[in-house]
Amino acid sequence: MGDQKLIKNTKMVEVAEQLIPELYTREVKPMGSVSIIADEQALQGWKVVPDIESDNWCGRTYGKRDSFVLDFGDHLVGYVTLSIQSVGSPQDAPLKLKMTFGEMPCEVAESFDNYNGNISSSWLQEETLYVDVLPAELKLPRRYCFRFLKVEVLDTSRRYQVMFNQASCTTVSSGDDARVEPLPANVPEDIRMMDYIAVKTLRNCMQTVFEDGPKRDRRLWVGDLRLQAQANYYTFKNYDLVKRCLYLFGGMRLEDGTVGACVYEKPNPQVDDINLYDYALLFVACLHDYYEASTDLSTLEELWPIAMEQLEIGLARLDVRGIVRDDSTWWSFTDWQDGLNKQTPAQAVLIYCLRRGKELAGILGLDKERHYIESKIELTVKAALEHLWDDTQCLFVSGETMQISWASQVWMVLAEVMPQEVNRSLMDRVFEQPPSIGMTTPYMYHHFIEALILAGNYDQAVSQIRAYWGGMVKDGADTFWELYNPADKKLSPYGSFLINSYCHAWSCTPAYFIRKYML
Amino acid sequence: MGDQKLIKNTKMVEVAEQLIPELYTREVKPMGSVSIIADEQALQGWKVVPDIESDNWCGRTYGKRDSFVLDFGDHLVGYVTLSIQSVGSPQDAPLKLKMTFGEMPCEVAESFDNYNGNISSSWLQEETLYVDVLPAELKLPRRYCFRFLKVEVLDTSRRYQVMFNQASCTTVSSGDDARVEPLPANVPEDIRMMDYIAVKTLRNCMQTVFEDGPKRDRRLWVGDLRLQAQANYYTFKNYDLVKRCLYLFGGMRLEDGTVGACVYEKPNPQVDDINLYDYALLFVACLHDYYEASTDLSTLEELWPIAMEQLEIGLARLDVRGIVRDDSTWWSFTDWQDGLNKQTPAQAVLIYCLRRGKELAGILGLDKERHYIESKIELTVKAALEHLWDDTQCLFVSGETMQISWASQVWMVLAEVMPQEVNRSLMDRVFEQPPSIGMTTPYMYHHFIEALILAGNYDQAVSQIRAYWGGMVKDGADTFWELYNPADKKLSPYGSFLINSYCHAWSCTPAYFIRKYML
Q: Which UniProt keywords apply (chains A, B) (predicted)?
């Protein structure tokens, strides 16, 4: 790692850099102060109760060890300013302050000192700082992602206290609210609410790229990009931001030509050395969707060779039977689900992307490529039905252990290897006999919903959206989360729910489903 | 406190603000990394040992919980820059760093978490910060006062480590090294070393005012100013900085006209509400010394009414006998010495300042004032000899308990209430029968040395300088300290020696003694 040679197309990266968007800003003031109280009945064990005199945080005096929690009323991404003055004798020692930012109440209620998760504690949003001269308008230089802000006065001196006169957050996003069309009046309230939260989730992830989560990890991932772009076409319609992201992925690839799973913007654009089989292929689907939404032919023409190369790289993993090889040398994402075998979902992603590649080749008038891809679709579909379909159980199986998972069925439906009616009965079957290997992320749930719709089971799709994203709404989500398991609301893939992202790109697609299929 | 009405002369404050000096800067690199090892034999229990490969801190890779201590080789006041880069995969999470700055090894060796002193913990110099984008040239915005810098990598991520390419400190001072004359070649090495350290102490305290300590509390105190100014006239000769400070004190006074004990520069000049009997009077001595050194008559003319007013305020405290009243309503500094009664030292400070006031009145040709002051000198000297001199013990006594202290004898010598020969035998007497109420601060020791010289006991003065400041040199002082008790080197007036100032203005006067009397 780190020493890997990467392919860089400077011209493409320059195109991407020319497209860095200006951000829309908005000034938000806190609603007031709140108390966060342990409550086993509340989500994650913490209940938010407005303080009796919740405006009193402003203008009160605070001394050593005093603290308060501000509730900004909604999930925000932006820059915080705090006005502070001293009270009493002149300020004869620096002010020592601690600020803790939380998307969720748990983050400001539980001490970060006990954090023992397996990703970096540096994502936990806190600052300890010294103010040498009061009064001060403290402008914190870092961007935070939060609804709650805990302010702790760690020390003043015996001769002075402090007063906070104002707090505000300047939010940032490259999503233009004015471009989002209001829903028709007849849309049910719960659907309207889900759309509202989904749009907000997308907006807060839309920065100078489509970030996966504005709290963590803030990177542009091609799999997350694809879902955000789909939601974006039905909401903010920021085509240039998608174009920028496609050029970043196209302009910086791994040594063998694979589109990297994620890229960084700073200090200079660079691709990470993570190679995910499915994510690289989904570049093709993302380009397909972009062209369909924007009809931007020149971008399609320029990026097509890279898309075609992803298909070739994906096909190179086929074994003699025409099945994606499953061994210890690869990594395909699919879902965070423990124990999930990725072979069959990966085969399906390959077919799914081959189909979109074929369509693009057609648009470009590249008959040779189109026929070639068509032949590969036939090969991989045939192989899938022959080797991955279990005739006895009437389900797709995956890997050496013939694992039956939701992911395999869902992705094979999306790959359209069987006719719609058969897919519909397949989806019915998994509801009747739910595979023990379930679904964990909203990313996987998105594909599940899309599969239900594609299989013609629209009602089930809607009720599943209501059950899953609607569950987050009932649990008080301001934005949709990285992870949601109704049976375990403290679940984290990282060993601590304090570090989960609670505004996560791949969770924003209710807006896509609602606006594409439900209106 | 805080609501006290203060007198502000805007014109005088403007004169002061026009004199804000440009600071001289210098770039200093660390000598290398060191280990700080517990050692009961070492000063304050901590020994500094250069690391075997002490240049290796630079260019090595550090991961979570790794740390190192840089030794910059000398006491510095300034701004720190650190160059950091990531090593390994791209930086997929912020870098969380902690930096701890120490004037002394104890500050980087002992945890600040256990600090339980009685002044604000916010003076302890540490920062915890996050670096979102690497490589970075981290320029810390606050000024630090240190020789040792401990850098702790609190977290990176599992995918990258960090490397430090460079560290430097841009020092600041309003003292121009070029103006300090080198000592003649025949000056003994130990005296030369004391002068060197004293000049450095003064330089590091000379900022936009004469600070008392650049680490803590960074204020301009009139008592400290007087000693720094005296040393300054024999070294940096920055007359304008003294003038600025005199105008700050003159321009902002307490409600009754008293010169405040200290002033702040920021955010706007303001006087603190601390009233110290002796410090207010010493404004007169400070103005006297300034005129003597600079012959700046217009400043003397402009500030004279304020000086005269201080004498009047001081005289208003006399009782019918002509003795400074000692009750619970006042505060005079004199020294940090526990249990010290301030009456007799205060009487002596009054006489000392009346004498200088009389001289200034003479220079200004103000005969009426000169005669008035002369009459008050006679009154207070006579009263002192009648009521504060114990004929049996042949010592000055102070307060209701007739306390015998070093401070009373020293200050009465400086007040010249008795002829030189009598003063000399008085000083001899205190050496023979040392009063149990001793001396604690270098500030008090300064006056002790000055009294020995004035009493004609030059040899004793030199050997006392060697014993006291020379003791600090032997203990490894880079700059002279706020407090030095050879019998208890962990002593602190604040409950923790971590928060003592180890570069303190009132400790800089060996340069004055050496250059004024010993050359």
A: Hydrolase
How many Å lie between the alpha carbon of A5 and the closest alpha carbon of chain B?
12
How many domains does chain B contain in total? 2
CATH number, domain containing residue A288: 1.50.10.10
| Domain enclosing residue A295, as ranges | 177-518
Question: Per residue in B179-228, pLDDT tens?
Answer: 999 999 999 999 999 999 999 999 999 999 999 999 999 999 999 999 99
- In tens, the pLDDT along B233-259 reads 999 999 999 999 999 999 999 999 999
Angle at A385 between CA A380 and CA A388, to 5 degrees: 95
Contact A90 B120 (CB under 8 A): no
Shortest Cα distance, chain A CAs vs residue B95, angstroms: 6
Chain A residue with minimum CA distance to B97: A122
For residues A231 and A159, membership in a common domain is answered with: no
Do A90 and A230 lie in a common domain? no
B276, B389: one domain: yes
What are the chain A neighbours of B155 within 8 Å (beta carbons)? 120-122
In chain A, residues with a C-beta closer than 8 Å to the C-beta of B133 are 266-267
| CATH classification at residue B105 | 2.60.120.260
* CB contact residues (below 8 A), chain B span 235-264, against chain A: 264
B107/chain A closest Cα distance in angstroms: 18
Q: Count how many pairs of residues, chain A against chain B, have C-beta atoms within 8 Å.
A: 111
Contacts 24+ apart (CB under 8 A), B268-274: B269/B13, B269/B16, B269/B17, B270/A90, B270/B6, B271/B6, B272/A89, B272/A90, B272/A92, B272/B219, B273/A89, B273/A90, B273/B1, B273/B2, B273/B4, B273/B6, B274/B331
Residues B267, B410, single domain; the answer is yes
pTM of the entire structure? 0.95
CA nearest neighbour of A246 among A272, A220, A268, A274? A220
Is there a single domain that holds both residue A29 and residue A120? Answer: yes
User: What are the tens digits of pLDDT across the range A219-247?
Assistant: 999 999 999 999 999 999 999 999 999 99
Chain B CB contacts of A92 under 8 Å are 217, 219, 272
Of B173, B204, B237, the last residue of a domain is B173
- A120 and A182 in a common domain: no
Each residue of B27-85: pLDDT tens digit? 999 999 999 999 999 999 999 999 999 999 998 999 999 999 999 999 999 999 999 99
Residue A452 within a domain? yes
In this structure, the number of other CB atoms found within 10 A of the CB of residue B389 comes to 17
Residues B90, A134: C-beta atoms closer than 8 Å: no
pLDDT at B4 (0 to 100):
59
Picking from A122, A156, A494 by the largest number of B CB atoms within 10 A of its own CB, the best residue to mutate is A122
Say whether residue B132 is in contact with chain A using an 8 A CB cutoff.
yes
A117 touches chain B (CB under 8 A): no
Whole-angstrom Cα distance, residue B195 to residue A49?
Answer: 64
- Tens-place pLDDT, residues B121-180: 999 999 999 999 999 999 999 999 999 999 999 999 999 999 999 999 999 999 999 999
Four-residue CA torsion sign, A358, A361, A365, A371: negative
Residues of A in contact with B158 (CB under 8 A): 118-120
Domain for residue B338, yes or no? yes
Tell me if chain B has a CB within 8 Å of the CB of A95.
Answer: yes
Classify residue B76: in a domain, yes or no.
Answer: yes
Instruction: Pick the last residue of a domain from B173, B205, B234.
Output: B173
**Residues A95-123 pLDDT 10s:** 999 999 999 999 999 999 999 999 999 99
Residue A212 and residue A130 in one domain:
no
Question: How many other CB atoms sit within 10 Å of the CB of residue A458?
Answer: 12
Q: Do A234 and A96 fall into the same domain? A: no
Chain A nearest C-alpha distance from B92 (Å): 7
CB contact under 8 A, B157 and A2: no
Q: Where are the alpha helices (DSSP H) in A388-441?
A: 406-414, 420-432
